[in-house]
Write a structure and sequence with these properties.
The protein is of the alpha+beta class. The chain has one domain. The protein is built from 2 helices and 4 strands; from the N terminus they run E-E-E-E-H-H. It has helices at about 65-75, 85-90, and strands at about 5-10, 20-30, 40-45, 55. The protein has a 4-stranded antiparallel β-sheet. Strand 3 (about 40-45) and strand 4 (about 55) form a beta hairpin. About 10% of the residues are buried.
Length: about 90
Amino acid sequence: MADFRILNEVRHRPANSEGWEICFQFGVYTYGPEPGNSEPGYRFIWRRPDGTLQAARGQARLTPEYIAILLGLSAQAGWYPVPQEEAAGVR
């Protein structure tokens, strides 16, 4: 199992979602305590209405509409699709 450190995030609250938000995140996956076991990467994940993450082993059901919205929001925020490895401090 990997730990994930969020470096950037955008959120979208779909209509009738009862407060749930779908998130697109960029961060660093760390696979163990040994140096060099980290990789930058992206993920989609749901946030519950209380703000906590819904860990579903990386499985977030997304419609094409949600993907387009989240990629657009991250592009507006300036962090996607620009390579993020330097921002993550991981090579």
